[in-house]
Target: Single-stranded DNA-binding protein
Amino acid sequence: MTEGTTSAAAEGADTLTRLEQEGEIAADYLEGLLDIADLDGDIDMDVEADRASVSIISDIGGRDLQKLVGRDGEVLEALQELTRLAVHRETGDRSRLMLDIAGYRAKKRAELSELGAKAAAEVKNTGEAVKLNPMTPFERKVVHDAVKAAGLRSESEGEEPQRFVVVLPA
Model:
């Protein structure tokens, strides 16, 4: 192995270790939150697409955890930001950690991927750009990925919180 290869492999391992550390810090923070709120949930950690991913899942149907999701995921978004701040406080580094509660984000990702694929199909059929409704950054990213997978390109336009995706013809 050359020195460059060793260095690149070590850097990849360092990144994984850093992301695993973020997940551990986030899990500890969220366990404390669940205890304070007197909610039951298991915490699952993973590393996906160069970011730590933490999920709170329930073995009793997740009705209690819906309180932590809130209307349209608003509470989930706030908890994700608080968890990122807790990680930042411990590590000194900005975190891109992704939090999911009771499968909300996973379900939302599937719905948005389908929306992106349908919009891409419409653009391919009509040759006209399609503007979608305003979305959060997470939602826009999922749609952009689905449009790219369909072989088209897309852009975000507008200002937060009214920023939206435009699917463009090839």
Remarks:
- The two ends are 43 Å apart (CA to CA).
- Residues 108-168 form a domain with the Ribosomal Protein S8; Chain: A, domain 1 fold (CATH 3.30.1370.50).
- The chain has a mean pLDDT of 90.
- Residues 29 and 82 are 9 Å apart (CA to CA).
